[in-house]
Design the sequence.
């Protein structure tokens, strides 16, 4: 299957490299997308993400695609990359499987804790505002209708004075913040930053992508 990979906020496409290599070893074709929230709005990033996918699918068609039939593909996203994908969903014809790693599908407590931080604001800009649910951002995000798997981590701290007040979390988002109606949901022992590199997560992704 053609699999498009999108990283999370503050990371680069290199963060998805190990997972991409493992998926290629399993027989998939992968393509990774990069972006910078400190320089681009989420609208601009979503437009670029759609264009990246369209180019990848066009290249596949040129090398023996299936004619006029829709080209089916999958997306594996990490963290904010999943919200970018959800924002772009109406334009992603052919997306049949969506695997979301540690997605902040609800306004994250960590963003609220950092709301007054000038550094957070400077580094995250429009994305930071959206995570704080500016202008009803979450309410207006499309909900996936294709087969969707959410993988959440619970390897974060559990102390009561954390932003999550003792709730299970991965150090950035809580398990509950990852949940999404209609999606298959799995919790693993992982932290947010490295969840995509764990072998058990790779196994879950591979089984999800299997025909």
Sequence:
């Amino acid at each position: 299957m053609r699999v498009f990979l999108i990283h999370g906020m503050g990371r680069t496409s290199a963060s998805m490299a190990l997972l991409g290599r493992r998926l290629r070893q399993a027989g998939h074709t992968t393509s990774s997308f990069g972006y910078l929230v400190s320089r681009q709005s989420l609208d601009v990033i979503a437009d670029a993400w759609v264009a990246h996918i369209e180019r990848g699918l066009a290249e596949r068609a040129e090398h023996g695609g299936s004619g006029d039939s829709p080209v089916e593909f999958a997306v594996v996203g990490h963290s904010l990359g999943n919200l970018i994908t959800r924002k772009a969903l109406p334009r992603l014809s052919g997306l049949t499987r969506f695997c979301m790693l540690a997605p902040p599908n609800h306004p994250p407590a960590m963003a609220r804790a950092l709301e007054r931080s000038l550094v957070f604001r400077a580094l995250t800009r429009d994305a930071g505002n959206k995570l704080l649910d500016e202008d009803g951002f979450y309410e207006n995000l499309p909900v996936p209708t294709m087969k969707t798997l959410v993988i959440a981590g619970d390897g974060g701290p559990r102390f009561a004075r954390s932003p999550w007040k003792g709730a299970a979390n991965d150090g950035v988002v809580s398990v509950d913040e990852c949940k999404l109606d209609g999606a298959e949901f799995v919790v693993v022992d992982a932290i947010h930053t490295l969840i995509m590199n764990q072998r058990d997560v790779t196994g879950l992704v591979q089984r999800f992508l299997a025909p």
User: Anything to note?
Assistant: The first helix runs from residue 17 to 25. Residues 2-209 form a domain with the Rossmann fold fold (CATH 3.40.50.1820). The chain is about 35% helix and 15% strand.
